[in-house]
Specification:
The protein has 17 helices and 20 strands. The chain has 618 residues and is α+β, with helices and mostly antiparallel strands. The strands form five sheets. Strands 6-9-2-1-11-14-13 form a seven-stranded mixed β-sheet, with no helix packed on it. A four-stranded antiparallel β-sheet has the order 7-8-3-20, with no helix packed on it. A four-stranded mixed β-sheet has the order 18-17-16-19. Helix 2 packs antiparallel against helix 9, helix 3 packs antiparallel against helix 4 and helix 5 packs antiparallel against helix 7.
């Protein structure tokens, strides 16, 4: 009986003492907030300017406090006219300042903003007053015109106790006082919460302790169109206007500096002596292809520098003399190919870097003052506009993203990415218009250019309104057409271009009588013109003129069988293999990172509103 009596007494003591010594497991107990004052200034555009003043008493050594402010709100459930609607929102935070002269650091994540207040170099005083201000940019809730001011004045997830709290809410226009609702304990309101309404201002206080799980939320339903969430697109109109102005400048510049003077096509029956076959290809196309470079093997063979042995599946090129009087790019290429006396077509495909160097060397040769084919002014203007055209759309994307997130780094990074992608897209489109390209922009380069174009289209469609996308693209496409053609030839360029056009016309349209006369005068005429025809993509047209001629095997060619048909097909097939060098394999590494966070949900209860900072000490 005594044992049973002791058991009931012990059980009674447990029920009495546990509530007394119950400790909020979520509280850090490093500090308490003696008073928490929140002032919210609401404007008609739905921007809330929040000023929070926290009178903090630290019970243990701490550097300061931190505040977490949400920006993402997932899966909010609403009951609109008896129909349940689920929505997610983003309320970006901007203009964060700590007005109490404390050191602070701001970190932005995908679902919110964290403000760390204090210094790692010293501890906070026992009593500190922290004043923080920031702006919350709300948005239309998408509820068929229903609007509400639904905000967590004090969050339910503070890691400490708040002993007293006060708040002031300044609304922009009159509202129905009867629709003001407060929640402190889930769907209930603490009887100690008192508030008054004077004009458009709501003032209130809560003289009871707020601990983890409690908070203050206001829900004020307002009339339709109380908030004006319409966007001001003036900056987009300005950006489109700047793009249009650039287009006008592009057209004026093209008219003045980009058009060629009249080209006089000369009559040619032989290759220009001042041009190699690769140089001829560059003069005609304005860029160097791998075929231009490979044509030099035929060109050197005709000059008695190398021999070509046909092994059916591949060709072997053997050096028999040194190149001493060629162009600078020829000399470097010749030395690079013939480090040994022999090289095969298969081995040439491994000379990718040499091909790229030669492309640059030919470009450099024809950009020297004495050899310049294109006006330096037109080239400079073309390059300038290539980099200028993408600036307006890049800035508009950046600023639009800033209005969505108020994250400067992310906005600038995205705008910069769109700008770079625009340059890549413009290079690709100018290639379509003018065939201005080189091997760097073939294969992988073209694929990347297409991907950049797709990237720009996708990003712009997600950020910019349709009218801006259409306007920017129309203006930029027209600009690209003019910029692509803006390559005015110099006096030397016009002269050489006229000669190359004459040679090309001769290769295509040579009369039979003329071919017979030239062949009788020089039986090697076919081989002398062949490298130039190869560089101009006219090998087949040139060969057709000699179908009925008995062409002797050249002294530089070695093979078991020889005929016009076999020579042509074997040579073209094997040279095509050599003109496709394989890029070297580079090592790749993969990595990744990021962060994740939870969402917020609710409706019509304490902690279910938008916003509201929470935090703790550090």
């Amino acid at each position: 009986m005594n044992k049973l009596k002791k058991f009931f007494i012990s059980l009674l003591l447990v029920f009495i003492l546990v509530p007394i010594f119950n400790i909020n497991v979520h509280a850090e107990n490093n500090f308490v907030i003696n008073n928490y004052d929140v002032v919210i200034d609401v404007n008609e555009k739905g921007v809330y300017t929040i000023t929070e003043t926290l009178d903090v008493k630290f019970t243990r050594e701490s550097h300061g406090i931190y505040l977490n402010i949400p920006t993402r709100y997932e899966n909010y459930n609403w009951n609109v006219d008896g129909q349940y609607i689920t929505k997610s929102y983003n309320f970006p935070i901007s203009h964060i300042k700590v007005l109490s002269n404390h050191e602070y650091d701001v970190e932005r994540e995908s679902n919110g903003v964290s403000i760390k207040i204090g210094s790692p170099d010293y501890y906070a005083n026992t009593n500190e007053k922290y004043v923080v201000t920031y702006k919350v940019h709300s948005t239309d809730l998408g509820l068929n015109g229903v609007q509400t001011f639904y905000y967590n004045i004090i969050s339910t997830t503070w890691n400490t106790d708040i002993l007293n709290s006060t708040f002031t809410i300044n609304m922009p226009k009159p509202f129905d006082v009867n629709k003001v609702n407060f929640y402190t304990d889930n769907t209930e309101k603490d009887e100690n919460l008192k508030y008054t309404v004077e004009g458009n201002t709501i003032k209130g206080s809560l003289n009871s302790i707020i601990n983890y799980g409690r908070g203050i939320t206001i829900k004020l339903d307002v009339e339709k169109n109380y908030f004006d969430y319409s966007l001001d697109y003036m900056y987009l109109y300005i950006g489109i206007g700047i793009s249009a102005l650039i287009l006008i400048l592009v057209i004026i510049s093209f008219w003045k500096y980009g058009r060629d003077d009249k080209v006089i096509q000369t009559v040619e029956f032989e290759a220009p002596k001042e041009l190699s076959s690769a140089g001829c290809g560059y003069v005609y196309k304005g860029f160097t292809s791998n075929k231009d470079i490979i044509s030099l093997l035929l060109y050197w063979a005709n000059k008695g520098l190398i021999t070509i042995e046909d092994n059916k599946n591949y060709l072997t090129f053997t050096k028999i003399n040194e190149l001493t009087d060629g162009h600078s790019y020829e000399m470097k290429l010749f030395r690079g190919l013939f480090t040994n006396d022999k090289i095969t077509t298969k081995e040439i495909t491994k000379k990718y870097n040499l091909f790229q160097d030669t492309i640059y060397d030919i470009y450099s040769y024809f950009h020297k003052k004495e050899n310049r084919l294109f006006s330096s002014i037109s080239d400079g203007i073309q390059a300038l506009f290539m980099f200028v055209l993408g600036i307006p759309i890049g800035l508009c994307v950046s600023y639009t993203m800033y209005l969505k997130t108020y994250d400067s780094f992310t906005s600038l990074a995205l705008g910069g990415a769109v700008y770079v992608a625009m340059i890549a897209s413009m290079l690709l489109l100018s290639n379509v218009v003018t065939s201005f390209s080189d091997n760097i922009f073939k294969s992988m380069g073209k694929v990347l250019g297409i991907l950049f174009s797709i990237l720009v289209a996708i990003v712009c469609s997600l950020i910019l309104p349709s009218f801006a996308i259409i306007a920017f693209w129309l203006i930029n496409i027209i600009s690209i057409v003019f910029v692509g053609f803006m390559r005015r030839r110099s006096e030397i360029g016009i002269k050489l271009y006229g000669k190359v056009l004459g040679l090309r016309d001769f290769i295509i349209h040579a009369e039979k009588d003329r071919i017979e006369m030239l062949f009788n005068d020089d039986p090697k005429i076919f081989y002398k013109i062949l490298p130039y025809a190869y560089a101009l993509d006219l090998t087949e047209a040139w060969s057709e003129h000699f179908e009925n001629f008995e062409i002797e095997k050249p002294d530089w060619y070695y093979g078991d069988d020889f005929s016009n048909y076999y020579f042509y097909n074997s040579m073209v097939r094997n040279l095509a293999v050599a003109s496709k060098p394989i890029p070297p394999v580079s090592s790749k590494s993969n990595g990744g990172g990021g962060f994740s966070g939870g969402g917020f949900s609710g409706g019509g209860f304490s902690g279910g509103g938008f916003g509201g900072s929470s935090g703790g000490s550090w």
